[in-house]
């Protein structure tokens, strides 16, 4: 039986071109980028070229890109680094109830240091209201962090409108754009953001490498110490193979975001059409404000763990939400924020997420297997 991988929001397969680029970096460019000899200069060139490409993909300056170990570290640096550096201006932070745990747990940590955090609610489609941000702002607010695309239901937030709102306020604006990168054209100037998080492994690049865009005039408190790398903002010897692979992954999508978006919209439409043959399902989120890469579905009358286990046995690999909380079979904090603690939709939700290798036939085959699994489980529970 052919395996069907529909968990690209958790991670994506490494593209062959990326693997080849990384292999070359591992064997040919092993010098430390901080060394001044020829091998060091070769490695430094690779880092500099990658920084330029990634900056271009965000409409940013290369000096504003900080390489990190991934999206989680970039979120931590943006949230904690900003708060610690600017606490003399206030100790109030605004975020949403549906953020990735890299943001939420950073905010929880800051609360132990005396910061106050407002967790904005969302409506039933998972959207954070711009007006809610406005009403939560105070003279003490130093940071607002709202993700661009939710990693569980795919809701697209009105980031540009929020950025415009904050133009005349002291608060810095951060967005986690991990799930938007590669599928939505991003321009930090047009979005009016001060900080933005991306990572490589969601765009068919390697794990263990990400980046934080930081507007040049924004000051951060480093979280690590011990070196001058990344302009003293993130010390440590650079992950050269990861950086080289990150660059290659970005070059594969750069300028093709809208074409990719259109292709995934077609695939998702077919997927959802095929799903209609299954009774008692709810597609979570607003179809007009959701990423074409993610489809979150509640199969009423089932339970998450039994669906995941049986789909796995049937060769369908999906998840119930964030991979960072997988293993803890609790209801999604995102769906609870959308629907309330006791709503049945929170107990049976499965996330399907799409990738480059998917075809129309894959959409038909996966929904066929899902239908068989759901119908079997429902019969067993009668």
TrEMBL record:
Major enzyme class:
transferase
Q: Which InterPro entries match?
A: Aminotrans_V_dom (IPR000192), Aminotrans_V_PyrdxlP_BS (IPR020578), Cysteine_dSase (IPR016454), PyrdxlP-dep_Trfase (IPR015424), PyrdxlP-dep_Trfase_major (IPR015421), PyrdxlP-dep_Trfase_small (IPR015422)
Reaction(s) catalysed by this chain, per the record, are: (sulfur carrier)-H + L-cysteine = (sulfur carrier)-SH + L-alanine
Obligatory cofactor(s)? pyridoxal 5'-phosphate
Give a Pfam family name. Answer: Aminotran_5
Which key words are in the record? Iron, Iron-sulfur, Metal-binding, Pyridoxal phosphate, Transferase
SUPFAM superfamilies, per database record: PLP-dependent transferases
Identify the EC number(s): 2.8.1.7
Q: Name one GO molecular function term.
A: cysteine desulfurase activity
Aminotransferase class V domain boundaries: 5-361
What domain of life?
A: Bacteria
The secretion signal range is none
Q: Which family does it belong to?
A: Belongs to the class-V pyridoxal-phosphate-dependent aminotransferase family. NifS/IscS subfamily.
Q: What is this protein called?
A: cysteine desulfurase
Where does this protein come from, organism-wise? Halolactibacillus miurensis
What taxonomic ancestry is recorded? Bacteria, Bacillati, Bacillota, Bacilli, Bacillales
């Amino acid at each position: 039986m052919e395996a069907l991988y529909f968990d690209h929001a958790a991670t994506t397969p490494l593209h062959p071109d990326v693997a080849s680029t990384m292999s070359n970096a591992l064997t040919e460019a092993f010098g430390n980028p901080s060394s001044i000899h020829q091998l060091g200069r070769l490695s430094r060139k690779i880092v500099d070229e990658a920084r330029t490409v990634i900056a271009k993909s965000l409409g940013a300056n290369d000096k504003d890109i900080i390489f990190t170990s991934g999206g989680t570290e970039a979120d931590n640096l943006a949230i904690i680094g900003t708060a610690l550096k600017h606490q003399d201006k206030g100790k109030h932070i605004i975020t949403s109830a549906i953020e990735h745990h890299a943001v939420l747990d950073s905010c929880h940590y800051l609360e132990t240091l005396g910061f106050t955090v407002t967790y904005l609610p969302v409506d039933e489609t998972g959207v954070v209201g711009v007006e809610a941000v406005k009403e939560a702002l105070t003279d003490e607010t130093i940071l607002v962090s709202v993700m661009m695309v939710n990693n569980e239901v795919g809701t697209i937030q009105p980031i540009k409108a929020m950025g415009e709102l904050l133009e005349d306020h002291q608060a810095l604006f951060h967005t986690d754009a991990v799930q938007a990168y590669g599928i939505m054209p991003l321009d930090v100037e047009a979005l009016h953001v001060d900080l933005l998080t991306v990572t490589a492994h969601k765009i068919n690049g390697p794990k263990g490498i990400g980046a934080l865009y930081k507007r040049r005039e924004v000051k951060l408190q480093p979280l690590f110490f011990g070196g001058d790398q990344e302009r003293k903002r993130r010390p440590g010897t650079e992950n050269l193979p990861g950086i080289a692979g990150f660059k290659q992954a970005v070059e594969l999508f750069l300028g093709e975001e809208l074409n990719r978006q259109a292709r995934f919209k077609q695939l998702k439409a077919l997927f959802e059409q095929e799903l209609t043959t299954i009774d008692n399902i709810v597609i979570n989120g607003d179809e007009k404000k959701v990423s074409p890469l993610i489809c979150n579905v509640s199969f009423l009358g089932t339970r998450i763990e039994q669906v995941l286990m049986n789909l796995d046995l049937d060769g369908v690999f999906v998840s119930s939400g964030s991979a960072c909380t997988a293993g803890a079979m609790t209801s999604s904090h995102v769906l609870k924020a959308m629907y309330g603690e006791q709503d049945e939709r929170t107990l049976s939700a499965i996330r399907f997420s799409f990738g480059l290798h998917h075809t129309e036939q894959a959409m038909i085959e996966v929904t066929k297997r899902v239908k068989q699994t759901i119908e079997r489980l429902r019969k067993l529970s009668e």
